[in-house]
Amino acid sequence: MHRRAFLSLSAISPLTHLLPGFARESTVRQSSARELKTDLVVIGGGVGGIATALAGARNGLKVILTEEFPWIGGQLTSQGVPPDEHPWIEEQGSTKTYRTFRQKVREFYLRNYAFTDEAKKKRQLNPGNGNVSRLCHEPRVAVAVLLEMLAADLTAGRILLLQPYRLISAEMDGDRIAAVEVSRGAEGRRITLEAPFFVDATEMGELIFHTHTEHVTGAESRDDTKEPHAPLDADPDNHQAFTYCFAMDHQDGKDNRIDEPPGYKAWREYVPKLEPRWPGNLLSMEMSDPITLKTRQVGFNPMGSVLMGLMNLWTYRRILDKSLLAEGSVESDICLVNWPQNDYWLGNLYNDAAWAKHDLAARELSLCLFYWLQTEALRPDGRRGWKGLRLREDVMGTEDGFAQAPYIRESRRIKAIFTVTENHVGVDARAKLLGKRPGEFTAEKFTDSVGTGSYRIDLHPSSGGDNYIDVSSLPFQIPLGALIPTRVENLLPACKNIGTTHITNGCYRLHPVEWSIGEAVGELVAFCRSKKRMPRQVRKDAQLLTDYQTQLAKAGVDLDWPAEIARTVR
């Protein structure tokens, strides 16, 4: 049986994609007024935005949190990306509340799913047993957990969730934001929001853009940053690939093939023009190894058999492992597709006048990859195509099985009073700078640390034609200076829009780091309100900085790495 997959520009724009039936506006503090005043406005309900709101509320602030997509949670949910995390995440290198989120995800599964007795005994249950994380899980489970974490504050009115609302304009008063305007959908109710502090937790730095806050996009030049992996010339349009993820399962013996997508033949023949070169067709099981850039062979088999030592893409980002559940509980594993084969790098979504064309093409690429897997992917038995593959609309909360929002790897980034560069966190760069061998040094120690993180500097192929840039890094700190704009006084970034470079964005953009940034920002606003100071004053005053860091530590925020981990090369 053939099933048709629908794709239309009006339905998939990342700026207008709001599905009836999933959109819901919080009833807490509902008012017909078109102006609302509060202590803190957070634009964007992704990972960093939620962490900001939770931190602000627990310190007594009234917070308005907006989200334009049907699900809160950003990378974890509407973008459909299981958490990418470092190996120490269970105990350190994040915040207490982030670790609480992770534990609550496990508890949700244990309460509601029929796990085997053996699976229940696992101290660190990984529902999907995916290769990329110790906690691969379904996006909607993350939604449920995040709403639970917000529930008491929503009911008490400490947090007002405006959803689906998106930012449409901002009003400035000199170097301060006076107000912002948000809209419910394209033609819905508009509300003006006023507050002493505003936070940009959007995936593409939308508040930064609307307030004309000084910022950077794309790649800086080597002369600007002194980074060994920076290009010789700056290119503001050179962004990392973005991806439309999708979820699928496999029904053995059934024919779920969709109609051939209109653009399939073009994508089937597409050979990436990257430097260094990509090994062949994008829709294939050959790719560039992210580190060596040599040809890497991978495999795909939803039946789970061994693939002659090759990595099985089916288990790479698997978000539900059937073998962990009682027999008959589910029909199949569920696989989340966020692979090199559906990374889109032919344009970007906020520096390119043709963003709508690129948005549509990225969705089309993912659909074509799915059709290719159904019809042409080589199987271990020598046949081609897995016609039992099925898009899982319910898993993604959409009508087609694709994510509600594109997975954005690179945002607009503020010009901050301090910028983290490769020389602060990169292994090779620091080895050359310090004249030492790896293992003899740590990442730069920041006296104004407000959090920690760890990930390789991992840049996916880019719209400027670069292949992977994937180099070793060290467990790092998040400096307060990277969260403070050079000019605008009451705007703070809370995700991948902080003062990093095109290069270091590659290790500061992951889920736990965004959460740590957001939590630090929420605590900072509360601290500034209590001390009647602004963020840059806190950083300049040694006693204020110490007091703020003490507040962070009491809240369960890790500010540094243990000595035995700090020198570890990732």
Overview of the molecule:
With 570 residues, this protein is of the alpha/beta class. The protein is built from 18 helices and 23 strands. The strands form eight sheets. Strands 4-3-2-8-23 form a five-stranded parallel beta sheet. It has a four-stranded mixed beta sheet with strand order 1-7-6-5. Strands 14-15-11-17 form a four-stranded antiparallel beta sheet. The radius of gyration is 23 Å and the shape is globular. Mean pLDDT is 93; it is low at 1-32.
Task: Give the radius of gyration.
Answer: 23 Å
Count of individual beta strands: 23
Mean pLDDT reading: 93
- For the largest sheet, list the strands in their spatial order: 4-3-2-8-23
Query: Count of DSSP helices?
Result: 18
Give the class from helix and strand content and strand pairing.
Answer: alpha/beta
Terminal Cα separation, in Å? 47 Å
The unreliable regions are 1-32
Strand residues, percent: 15-25%
Helical fraction equals 25-40%
Largest sheet: 5 strands, parallel
Shape type: globular
Describe the SSE topology.
Elements (H helix, E strand, L loop, with lengths): L8 H4 L22 E3 L2 E4 L3 H12 L4 E4 L29 H17 L4 H4 L18 H18 L2 E4 L2 E9 L2 E9 L5 E5 L2 E4 L5 H5 L4 E2 L5 H4 L16 E2 L2 E5 L13 H6 L16 E3 L6 E3 L15 H4 L1 E3 L13 E4 L5 E2 L10 H21 L13 E3 L1 H4 L16 E2 L7 H4 L1 H8 L14 E5 L3 E3 L9 E3 L4 E4 L11 E3 L11 H4 L2 H21 L3 H6 L1 H13 L8 H4 L4
Parallel strand pairs: 1-7, 2-3, 2-8, 3-4, 8-23
Antiparallel strand pairs: 5-6, 6-7, 9-18, 10-16, 11-15, 11-17, 12-13, 14-15, 19-22, 20-21
Helix pairs in contact: 2-5, 2-15, 3-5
